[in-house]
């Protein structure tokens, strides 16, 4: 009887772990232009200050930002911009060592999953092209228009663990690696047999 090969899982946070910058901010600048971005940040500054002071949660600040810049936009235009950013521009903010580590896991035959609070819109094209699974937040597009609402809970903190458990039967995996860099990853890191906090920061 041939025994099946042990299965291993590698869970990667995205922003700050794989990237040097926040992909949400970079995408907004790409899709809306620097002038509109700077104007929007000025308008949103009370919200951003409240978030920095921990007066409002992560998901609310993100929702305000996404709504300000994209609510009412054609879903087709938004999706095209997100896909172009994902496939042509997002690699500019990648940490080389993070990508090397993802490649190492893939070569070992491990299941690699990006688990991110960022939006599926600009993560999925890159993930699909690189044969990496994705669990992330999703933005609602209804009747062809971006509503500014979330389709899912913000994939942050304990929600990351809930979403991983919903998508995968963890008892099928004999070992779990996890990589993260912030408070939003603590529960994900705690889920793993081997966890790495801010592991790729020297480049």
Any overview of this molecule?
- The chain is an alpha/beta fold.
- The chain is built from eight helices and seven strands; from the N terminus they run E-H-H-H-H-H-E-H-E-E-E-H-E-H-E.
- The protein has helices at residues 23-32, 34-52, 58-70, 75-89, 96-107, 120-129, 158-167, 186-191, and strands at 8-12, 111-119, 133-137, 139-142, 145-150, 175-180, 194-197.
- The strands form two sheets. Strands 3-2-1-6-7 form a five-stranded parallel sheet, sandwiched between helices.
- Helix 2 (34-52) packs antiparallel against helix 3 (58-70) and helix 4 (75-89) packs across helix 6.
- The protein starts with 7 loop residues before the first strand and ends in a 6-residue tail after the last strand.
- The mean pLDDT is 93.
The proportion of strand residues reads 15-25%
- Write the element-wise H/E pattern from the N-terminal end onward: EHHHHHEHEEEHEHE
What's the total count of β strands? Answer: 7
Number of helices: 8
Low-confidence stretches: none
Largest sheet: 5 strands, parallel
Distance between the termini: 47 Å
Structural class based on helices, strands and sheet pairing: alpha/beta
- Strands of the widest sheet, in order across it, are 3-2-1-6-7
Shape: globular
Mean pLDDT: 93
Could you estimate the helical fraction of the residues in percent?
40-55%
The radius of gyration is: 17 Å
